[in-house]
Amino acid sequence: MNSWRDTILNEFVPKISRLTIVSDPDALLTEEKLAVTLRERGFDLIEFNDAIEFRYAYESNYRIFWDQEKHTDLVVVLRLQDTEVDNLPFDLLKAGRRLSFDLGSIFPNLSYPVIEKLDRSLLDTLFDAQQNYSPGRIGDNATKDFILSHVFGIAAELIKSDADLLRILLRIHYNSLSIPGELIDRLVQVLSGHKAFAGWPLADVIPDENAFFAFLQERWPIFLSGLHATDQVGEVSEGYGLKHHGPDSLPFDHQDIRVYIDNLFVEGKLTPVAADTIGFDINTLQGDTWIKSGIADTGKNEGVRITRLLDLIVGEGPTEDSRYSDWTSLAFKWAELATLIHNDSTKEHRDCFLKLGDSLNKTFTDWLNNHYAGLINLPPTNPVMLHHVSRKMARELEDSQCAGVALVVLDGLALDQWIPLKHVIQEQAPDITFRETAVFAWVPTLTSVSRQTIFAGKEPLYFPNSINTTNNEQVLWRQFWENHGLSRLDISYKRGLGDGDPIVDLEPVFNPGRTKAIGLVVDKVDKIMHGMQLGAAGMHNQIRQWSKQGYLSALIKYLLEMDYHIWLTSDHGNIECNGKGRPSEGSIAETCGERARVYPTPELRSKVLSDHISAKEWRAPGLPADYYPLVAEGRDAFIKEGDSIVGHGGISIEEIIVPLVKIERRTR
Question: Its GO biological process terms (predicted)?
Fold first, then answer.
């Protein structure tokens, strides 16, 4: 076999059976590339989680066609062991063939409890390693070492110096390697036995990206001071008030290390330090451009960062065959660049930014056509789409001893607008730390569609009656948590937040000590957007001014004081766009947005599309059967030609990839 997928794909020949029931406890069928291939072969995947919801989708989308003697290739996926499949409804068992797949049969010689924790995107590398090195049957620790070495390229026995360790840590955290906790613990255990690393905070900097970058940030000014110092570095470092223990001096100038350092400052993971605060003379640097990126030089850093970010994004831009994680990684770089562009940039930089954005969004649209459907059924262990978020929170509430969980939805907040908001919150509440990821919004990126998926914890297919309004969110939120064992008195919801005193706002709905799950909608950003006449730059400025009023930081601090685990996200982003003409369609559209319009029939949608060739018929699964969106691409909008707005509803990186942030107290 060339791939582990071959074992599975060999069983899926089109029209072999109109219904296939698969026991898939390890979520193999939802692996991104496999899901795409199955869809290309004509197979639709539906998870069997809730019997009532499944029956609705099954009867309305498949059974009705079977009764008409039409064929469909439906795959019912169960996260169950094979023996539990017998509990399915009898009509399904009678109509379908049964299959079963699991990691143990694909990797028979490796420890199952270890490999089941791996991100499914890493199975290709593990499968190749198993074939090339034939490890034989091995136990837990040997499996961990095998995976660390052959999947992540980390051979602990070869890490012997500070430079070796720092290089590995940079590889892990700069590339956001998805290393399971069990493997991290194993790496900490092995390295802790090395005398050379006795002073390193291994248990902090290996598993925790935030702690690692904070550790580097503290050591950077010491390194700069050491470049001119005549005394020992240990003496130079006195007075820096280091919070993270470990060696004072790090080999930033090692050839394997400095290649990362420039990018860390350019991408905003590290913050340049002011030269005058450490007595550093920047004029002494000649060819050391990697050092200059870490020194604040008023009026110059921003231009240099813009140029470097443009180069990085051009060089690392994802393709139509990339994984979703490549696009979320790109989105963070794009957000950093957008923040710089919208704050202060030259016309040349702005023109380059817009041209590159058009190119990226064209590729992104092509990627969505093939990959978006495969994201829907991915496990919520690491949320990828917005409807995964509440499922992740439910698992966290079940596993933790916290007072409860709080979901804060900042309606309309784009990823680039999160960056200045984050910085202001950190200034107002320095004891708060953020664990940042990004997720995909639902298309069309309308509030009534995408925001409801967050509170419902399921696809729009399952709330067709309220898909054009947000008035049912509280009901959906309560239904979700009641299905996870909470009582109605344990659940709270409130929207329309953003001004005044957040504690006063919460009083009517929040009972500390009793409320286990609280959902909050802060709609201030959305209000700013819909009244915006100064474009994306005006959006950034007004969001920054609003954040300085302290509403959001006060809300976060209060919830943390009450011992709640806080998740912050957005239902959709926004993009500055230009009018291409408003469709002349009378009242045939059910939703008439600036970037999305929805029609009751495909014929009506096609009629409008013929006059707006830059728009796109959106046909991804997960939407109600009678819901036909027409969405704008690129920076186009369904408004008067020549006008410009900041809007949402369409398909662009800025609208679809939104922040998902776990907010915690800083522990040191």
Answer: methylation
Beta bridge partners of 568: 408, 661
Handedness of CA 5, 621, 479, 593 (dihedral sign): positive
Residue 445 inside a domain? The answer is yes
What range does the domain containing 78 cover? 5-106
pLDDT grade for 234, boundaries at 50, 70 and 90: very low
CATH number, position 569: 3.40.720.10
- One-letter amino acid for residue 247 of the chain: P
User: Do 478 and 460 meet the contact criterion of CB atoms below 8 Å apart?
Assistant: no
Quick one: pLDDT at residue 181? 94
pTM (whole model) above 0.90 = yes
Positive or negative, the CA dihedral 370, 373, 379, 384 is: positive
Q: Which of 4-13, 72-81, 540-549 has the weakest average pLDDT?
A: 72-81
CA distance 65 to 62: 5
CB 488 within 8 A of CB 506: no
Asked if residue 223 is part of any domain, the answer here is: no
Establish if 431 belongs to a structural domain: yes
Where b means 16+ CB within 10 Å and e means fewer, 261-286 reads bbbbbbbbbbebbebeebebeeeebe
- Chain centre distance of CA 96: 36
Query: pLDDT tens for residues 368-403?
Result: 999 999 899 888 989 999 999 999 999 999 988 889
How many Å apart are CA 453 and CA 403, to the nearest integer?
25
- Number of domains making up the chain: 2
As given in the structure block, the two tokens for residue 7 are 């074992």
